[in-house]
Amino acid sequence: MTLSPPSPETxxxxxxxxxxxxxxxxxxxxxxxRHGRQPAELTVLDGGGEGNGARRRTGEALGTRADxxxxxLRGLATVAAARDPHGQLDGLASALAVLAAHGxxxxxxxxxxLFGVWSPAGAREGFMAVREAVxxxxxxxxxxxxxxxxxxxxSDLLVEVRRxxxxxxxxxxxxxxxxxxxxxxxxxxxxxxxxxxxxGQYIQVIDIEGRQCSDFLAFGARQLQDGLExxxxxxxxxxxxxxxFPQPGLHGKFYDQSAQPLVEIxxxxxxxxDTFGPACNAKYYEDMGYPGHPNCTDNFNAxxxxxxxxxxxxxxxxxxxxxxxxDDDNLLVFDEPWSRPGxxxxxxxxxxxxxxxxxxxxxxxxxxxxxxxxxxxxVYDSKRTFSMAVAHRVTPDSEPTLTRQTAFAPRTxxxxxxxxxxxxxxxxxxxDNHGPQEEYWACRERAAVMDLSALRKFEVLGPDAxxxxxxxxxxxxxxxxxxxxxxxxLCNETGGMIDDCTLFRLGDTNFRLxxxxxxxxxxxxxxxxxxxxxxxxxxxxxxxxxxxxVQGPASRDLLAGIIWTPPTQxxxxxLGWFRFAIGRLGDHNGIPLLVxxxxxxGELGYEIWVHPRHAPALWDxxxxxxxxxxxxxxxxxxxxxxxxxxxxxxxxxxxxxxTDPFEAGIGFTVPLKTKxxxxxxxxxxxxRKAAPQRxxxxxxxxxxxxxxxxxxxxxxxxxxxxxxxxTRSPLLRKNIALCRIAVQYAEPGTAVEIGKLDGHSKRxxxxxxxxxxxxxxxxxxxx
Length: 783
What we know:
This protein is an alpha+beta fold. The radius of gyration is 29 Å and the shape is globular.
């Protein structure tokens, strides 16, 4: 039997960051330019450093030669006292410490430079270590200029290491601490530990190997001293938060029986836990035919007895990483945990606590993937601060990315504390002293400003850029002029929608695609490889472009005095619908920006795009210019009312990968007659259009009871459709809904009923109406 070589160890290097790897003789290291056109700097430190006489010429251990300064390392040294606010400068302390240990002054450090401005996506360079060395791999990051016709946003590098002496097939690697821990506890498989935590301290529960449950108990320490048990109470918590389990954000606290908060969830890299089932107990295993099996409840009883906590036959707990869900028949089912090696939950103690954590011993069902493993707990000092976040992965094997703030957060946070997690960013839901209705009317009657930085941006560059986009987008990209924007769909081979997007043409060979999901870039790169298009780069630029939307009938007058465009660009006041210009804020000396006449409100409006470092200045200028016009900040709740009235599609509501553009109400993005070139999904869309089954319509409801996303729509007993989005229209003074419905019932005037409760015992009469509800001819955004 031939054994396959072990998988390499992989490390990510973010733009502007540095990653260090220790090598032994015979180890091979490969540096990969994942997206292309990203230089790398390789600094090699031999042996034990200057102090033991083992220092040799830099790079000799890898056969490389330094050909210039290590610009990233030098930059890290100059900002050692002030971290980058957007977290770009990873590895700061560790990199400087390694340099110091090897007697290298970071200001004088040198590096071998790899790749260049024309390196293809996936380019790699490999080296073999001839002796022990530390290799520092850095990704230089030059900010992408808004005004650059040939933009090149900095992007990730990947480091792969193949060891000469392979390590075991799986060697659990405990993640580095988030800070210096005050407690560092290993909980062996099938056991539990107790520990005490002070108010304000942070508790990190880490799944070391992945797919391992950890039951968590916490009691108010002062109450225990008074003989009272006040511990985590799942029922109270679910009622107060309205969620199956708390998550970071507004609804992130776990309460006791007296409705007092005990812990707050600060970070969660998994997103699936349980608060319904008890910790495993003796009776469960006995009933399954395993008497005497170790269980979490008995382990907890033994650990908590010294605090005077009475033993129980089954402990209710916050079951971290336990994967349970209710199915369509309201049955509680469970499966293997979602957690991967190193995943964790970070909590903050709201009061002094007595805690207990287990490494669940269940090996008779999928709860721990049939193999109990260890859990690790760390406690951090209350003086530390950690960002609140959940984790997102673009693909299952991607590194997790934590929720981050937009560059406009310093301004929006001064106006509200009502933020929600939206696709990896914190965005305002509503603003204090305003509220969704006032924000809505400001947009309809005057002007409103909102943060849309969570949109995902990609630079599509190179001689093959147009060919790639023509083969993947439904619109005819060859007809797109420089300075023009087009709205399009991206479909898979079955005609289902991957995403919707807007595409900006900045030049003959460079485009900017703006969508809603990071996967758009992954998919475009896969299609480029499939089509053999070697001269195209798809580079993420979300972190180089943050944007606000200024929408409403006063938006043109508001912005006219603060946006300057050069003679080579259209005058701002002459900018046509779905056109853009590159200009500056204020005058020719101002910060560079891109302004597009686009929006998501159904009103005249604009979007303004700047580099994140210029975001506060842009907000301040718009805010000041908006005072005479009654400018109001706009949150997601008001935006939902606006876009439903305007009939604008939203991912996960009006469309998914099972829904084609015709069913999503955006069939106009598929010009099958005028676009003769083939594109992904064309044949499927031809068949779907010839024999449509469902379409999107508008519904007006009788009475004042609203519909909700997912409500069933009936004619008689049979379900004929489903509500995709619904709201109360302030302008129409009616409850309205978007509905995907069988084509036989799509005619305006058709009477239907929206099912509530079980879908049959209560119905809301409704009628199919012209769609969109508001300004169906788009006269206002065109004005």
